Amino acid sequence: IAQKLLTISVEDALSYLDQVKLQFGNQPQVYNDFLDIMKEFKSQSIDTPGVISRVSQLFKGHPDLIMGFNTFLPPGYKIEVQTNDLVNPLQPQAMTPTSQSNPSIPAYPSPRSPPMQLHPPLSGTPTGPPMQNNQPVEFNHAINYVNKIKNRFQGQPDIYKAFLEILHTYQKEQRNAKEAGGNYTPALTEQEVYAQVARLFKNQEDLLSEFGQFLPDANSSVVSGGLKSYNNKKPKLLNLKDSSVAEASKHGVGTESLFFEKVRKALRSAEAYDNFLRCLVIFNQEVISRAELVQLVLPFLGKFPELFNWFKNFLGYREMSHIETYPKERATEGIAMEIDYASCKRLGSSYRALPKSYQQPKCTGRTPLCKEVLNDTWVSFPSWSEDSTFVSSKKTQYEEHIYRCEDERFELDVVLETNLATIRVLETVQRKLSRMSAEEQAKFRLDNTLGGSSEVVHRKAIQRIYGDKAPDIIDGLKKNPAVSVPIVLKRLKTKEEEWREAQRGFNKIWREQNEKYYLKSLDHQGINFKQNDTKVLRSKSLLNEIESIYDERQEQASEENASPPTGPHLTLAYEDSQILEDAAALIIHHVKRQTSIQKEDKYKIKQIIYHFIPDMLFAQRGELSDVEEEEEEEEMELEEGASKKHNGVPGSGSPSKSKLLFSNTAAQKLRGCDDAYNLFYVNNNWYIFLRLHQTLCTRLLRLYSQAERQIEEEVRERDWEREVLGLKKEKNDNPAIQLRLKEPMDIEVEDYYSAFLEMVRNLLDGNMEASQYEDSLREMFTIHAYIAFTMDKLIQSIVRQLQHIVSDEICVQVTDLYLAESANGASGGTVSTQSSRSSVEAIYQRKAEHLMSDENCFKVMFLRNRGQVQLTVELLDTEEENSDEPMEAEVRNLTYSTTPELREHLARKPVFLPRNLRRIRKYQKGREQLDKEACEGGKKSLEKEKMECMFKLNSYKMVYVFKSEDYMYRRTALLRAHQSHERVSTRLHKRFQAWVEAWVKEHVTRDMSAETNKWLMGEGRDGFLPCTTSRQPEVLHFMNINKYRVKYNTSTKAP
């Protein structure tokens, strides 16, 4: 009966299981119940009729599934479904329930599992599930085995895929043999399958032994076939003809039989001994080489050095000299693993020399020149520290496109050149045959090279065209070249024309891809610049930058018990005053096209850009256009004689004065001075505008400088080619243009910068796409163009801040205060006379701090020294120095001089230290706020006094009332703590680390340190539980730490 079992393919089982899942997608319990039925049948809890009954009941109402189950029933069993859904099971009458066979459902662990008919193990194998009534290995056993492989090599998916490929190839060979009806000999036998799996599962004895249960022929050959001679070069091992190893002495010498007896006793397991014999069988069948046999038996004999050495000596195996010449195409994988590169000769950090005993693989196509220039000695052997933070450069998406095009082009070129080389070889053979007689042609034969110089190149070309039939074609070319060469040559030429035509189509696609992505692939910084720059130029980011510097100084001063240092927090440079004109032109160009800005505000913005900013930067003023001046004159005539208000600030009676804000300032008079400064106290909006304006000028200058460098390089290259080579370089002689990587530019190098400014205007106006703008910049400025990608966003941010400056009340008051103090001489002058203006500048500062008491106050200075202009910004502390009384402000800023006026003032009012005044005023202000909130019922106060106490009359002891307390909270304390947390933690850690290193250097020796590291890693210590310790560097609380993780073996319970 077992011989009559149907051979079911895995595809059938997969299809059936998928149907069950599809039909009961909303009822997963049905699918699980079906698997439970199969498990119960495996354990012999139910018989075949019981399976039929339960499956029919489970799939009731689904006749297609019930009828489909017939495929997996043993011969004689059948399920019929009638029209009224009644199930009629049929079974053979001559069979009893105890002799019925299992439904032969093959193993199917996953959709990727290739089809393979698994077979039962040897009846004499002591381990593994026993055979039941000569039935095949059960369905669930095969599933569990393949799942075990998948889980074992979860981190090595290549091994699992290779295993599935072996099974797929084996089943394909078996199917071909069955269809041929005995006229086809499978190229892959069970012994070869076992050998391939054995190489794949190195050091995995349990998987290998369990796999042997599914290959009865390979297993029986171990017992019946024994070992035979490999070839004349290999020693003859025992030729065992009987299944009993005890009879081996009848057929072999005593030493050999004694060796096998020792091995059988040493392994202590019949299963392990059978696996050892399987390795010898596949070696005798010339499936594996001598070196591979040694690798296979290493798990068996590695623990017994005496037996292992005898075995290697008997094989004639020598370390580092075991390169086999059979089979010819066998790769030498694994050989490199046997070389100890650490002990080889070293060249630099990454190269090692192969040992002299290493036998080089044969290469038949080398010429004397190849032997002279090619490297056969040095191999790459990179090494790095585990703690290294080096990260390899990651390709951008545009680089990936370029690399992919090159890979595809290379692969196609290899195919075409291989095919062309084969055509040339066969054409030579054909011409040779044409000169022969018929008898000579009949006797003519080709060798493995097919008339050429390489065995591999031409064989690959034929395999690429003929596929599985390639061996027959090659065999025909060797035995009967007169007939086969013209046929194969015609086919090769046909394919040559097809592939050349396809190459022409691909070249067009590749050229388009290269032109599209070439410049973008070179631009590494432009990918992330746009996103990061948007964050950097936000108003919040610019304010946080200077506030963090301010807080750091305050924190440092408080730790050192010193007064906070004075001086600028930021220093920015204006390197070229000529660039101010380009920046002003771009800003005003965008301002003119903003419909949301009133006409009067636009004129004020123009005055700021054309007059005020150049005056502050000691540059030439810009000129307003004639049209604008005429419009202003007409407006002044209409408004003459009437005073008006603008931005909430009353204007003067003269309209000309209300329009011309910066007609006569001290900064305008300092333009010719070389050593001078301008002073300006500003709020947040002015500060952000000045930062953005300086950024715009810097970026414009960088692009202008790059354009100048490109002009110089172009002129230098043209002169060199004209003088040295006598050539005149054309515009399209650029290598990238010649290689069709980019289109030629219509703009001359001399016009790059002006063309860039025009593109920015078009981008601001919406007449140009952002992608086209970026591509044009890359063509002109190459990898330096990224700095201008966000130019439109930068200008738009500047215009928004200018709109606030001319419309917000506080901003207008800041400007008016500057103009008023400028008339008093408090807004700057020459550096040499600064001391004479200290008092008026101090008054200007106090007024500015009072005006900007609700927001930040910045002290901005424009310094000019030896032609260099710098912008310095200092954030002032206005939180504690605000006062509503001018007298107290004067007391805070006392200058200790003995003038009569000061003595008279001190006689009228007591003198307090400024810090005491600040504290008392702050306390009084806080108390007033608390009282106000208490009256309004507010609960969010910064200070509460609820402390209550009671006295015991009998003991006169004072006790505090439960849940009554006083607490005080300082504003911005938590924010400053968050901001200074990293700095304080890092400094304290460095201080502690310095102390530890000094102590270690004095008290800890190098050996003690090494022992400590070994103890941490669990090395070199007896009595430790078996475990694996790994060290992972991490960053915790802004500090680098080493995190040790201990993983105990599954068989050992961790403490």
Describe the protein in words.
This protein is an alpha+beta fold and 1055 residues long. 53% of the residues lie in helices and 8% in strands. The two termini are 56 Å apart. Helix 15 packs antiparallel against helix 19 and helix 22 runs antiparallel to helix 23 (599-616). The strands form seven sheets. A five-stranded antiparallel beta sheet has the order 6-12-11-9-10. GO terms for molecular function: RNA polymerase II-specific DNA-binding transcription factor binding; transcription corepressor activity. This is Paired amphipathic helix protein Sin3a. Residues 106-118 have a biased composition (Pro residues).
Short summary of the structure?
With 1055 residues, the chain is of the alpha+beta class. It is 53% helix and 8% strand. It is extended, with a radius of gyration of 46 Å.
- Provide a count of the helices: 38
Molecular shape: extended
- Portion of residues within helices: 40-55%
Number-wise, the strands total: 18
How large, in whole angstroms, is the Cα Rg?
Answer: 46 Å
Q: Biggest β-sheet, characterized?
A: 5 strands, antiparallel
Low-confidence stretches: 1-9, 94-138, 219-253, 320-337, 629-658, 880-898, 937-941
Mean pLDDT value = 75
Q: Taking strands numbered 1, 2, ... along the chain, how are they ordered across the largest sheet?
A: 6-12-11-9-10
End-to-end Cα distance? 56 Å
Structural class: alpha+beta
Strand fraction: 5-15%
